[in-house]
DNA sequence: AATCAAATTACAATCCCGAATAATTAGGTC
DNA sequence: GACCTAATTATTCGGGATTGTAATTTGATT
């Protein structure tokens, strides 16, 4: 069971080398939460995966919920930060930003994270899951991490498309988020809909397709 | 706690009147699963909500997972069926169907269900949640209920837009599903993005907006 | 060297959950 | 009216789940 544990089983006492177990725990927790969700994940299993004692998790992170929050914030803030940076860069150049550029800037950080390795992909799934949960706590967490970057993007889109009312853009931004989360999460649905022909398509091509779709939707004429 | 129970507490023995407890259980389970997810829901609580003994749930539905499946299939098949009907109707009239009509036919059943009452809304949320779960069982369930209607819609869209390759349409269909699930589920995100101005917008107008967005995306020129 | 604090484990406590069984009541049937 | 069967409850069972406490080992500090 716990054979998957981190390389060297340690003995009690302060170690002088080896990886930070706190990070190992976060990584394994990320995988577990992504796969089974918050309620479906057992702290025991995380401990076993990380090759540490269960109490150590409590020692570092407190309660299970605290652990989840830490996992989420760790990468969530990375993404949010990257979005800010990319938008800044876009707005800094003299000419006005195109819609497709804004969309691309918004999507890119997550896209890259997804393909950065198993943990990046896990986080993306975890986050997609969280966006489907109606519990107050989940909502607060998402808001805390993502809200202000989203608002800035809505603003930027608004300036790029002055003829479309602000609230319409807000709504369309929600559509956008839904589409890309679902797509990133990809839980087999994509393959279903294309009869398995999707495997052939390259990563960047897929991102381009997504951006094209979303940009067209965002720019659609209002009734 | 269990004060919310079904009107009349029964005694053992076969009753001659009163509502079908099996249906009551399904309804309450629907609410519970939508709110807490599969793993986060306690069978005990469902029993309490329905005002029945826990063993009765097992008597009718077997295991917790079986119960979930029943809940999901009950309305899922309704939706799937309605989609088939609407598409048939669309294809039956002589003229070729417009993209926006196809999209509308696809969305309408869920939209109506969402606004049919608390249980309809709960099912929609439940389903959005299920679409974010990577577990094999969840995937199989979704496939079983929704797959063939989706395939027919992809086909119809393909015929409406002969210049766009089939696999592109499949991909865009996935975008569409993501966007509308997220939107239907609406877990406060919409309000966040529009700074609360969304409450003012009427239901049908919102659906129109969604259709407009999606149709524009679907028809976007390919690179 | 002696002590202190950090990191880790082992183990217990408490609670709660899903499943299962056995008992009970009432309606239908012949 | 005797009997069978369907519907329902009360209660138990076995197993984990998270949380919490106490002990142990080791590096750092003075």
Describe the structure.
- The structure is a homodimer of 223-residue chains.
- The radius of gyration of chain A is 20 Å and the shape is globular.
- The termini of chain A are far apart.
- In chain A, helix 1 runs parallel beside helix 6, helix 4 (64-92) runs parallel beside helix 7 and helix 5 (99-114) packs antiparallel against helix 10.
- Chain A has a domain at 69-218: Tetracycline Repressor, domain 2, CATH 1.10.357.
- Helix content of chain A is 72%, strand content 0%.
- Chain A has ten helices and no strands.
- Chain A has helices at residues 21-40, 43-50, 54-61, 64-92, 99-114, 118-130, 136-160, 166-185, 189-193, 203-218.
- Chain A has 223 residues and is mainly alpha-helical.
- Chains A and B meet through helix 1, helix 6, helix 7, helix 8 and helix 9 of A and helix 1, helix 6, helix 7, helix 8 and helix 9 of B.
- Chain A binds a DNA duplex (30 and 30 nucleotides) through residues 10-16, 21, 42-44, 52-56, 58-60, 63-64.
Topology:
2 copies of one chain form a homodimer.
Chain A: H1 21-40, H2 43-50, H3 54-61, H4 64-92, H5 99-114, H6 118-130, H7 136-160, H8 166-185, H9 189-193, H10 203-218
Chain A binds a DNA duplex (30 and 30 nucleotides) through helix 3.
């Amino acid at each position: 069971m716990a054979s998957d544990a981190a390389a060297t089983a340690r003995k009690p006492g302060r170690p002088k080398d080896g990886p930070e177990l706190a990070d190992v725990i976060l990584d394994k927790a990320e995988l577990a939460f992504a796969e089974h969700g918050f309620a479906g994940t057992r702290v025991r299993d995380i401990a076993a995966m990380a090759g540490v004692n269960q109490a150590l998790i409590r020692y570092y992170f407190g309660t299970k919920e605290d652990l989840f929050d830490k996992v989420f914030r760790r990468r969530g803030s990375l993404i949010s930060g990257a979005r800010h940076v990319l938008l800044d860069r876009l707005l800094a150049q003299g000419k006005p930003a195109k819609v497709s550029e804004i969309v691309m800037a918004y999507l890119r950080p997550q896209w890259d994270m997804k393909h950065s390795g198993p943990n990046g992909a896990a986080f993306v799934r975890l986050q997609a899951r969280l966006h489907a949960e109606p519990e107050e706590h989940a909502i607060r967490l998402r808001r805390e991490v993502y809200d202000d970057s989203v608002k800035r993007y809505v603003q930027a889109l608004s300036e790029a498309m002055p003829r479309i009312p602000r609230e319409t853009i807000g709504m369309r931004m929600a559509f956008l988020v839904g589409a890309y989360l679902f797509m990133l999460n990809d839980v087999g649905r994509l393959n279903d809909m294309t009869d398995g022909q999707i495997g052939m398509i390259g990563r960047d091509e897929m991102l381009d397709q997504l951006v094209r779709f979303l940009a067209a939707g965002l720019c659609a004429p209002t009734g």
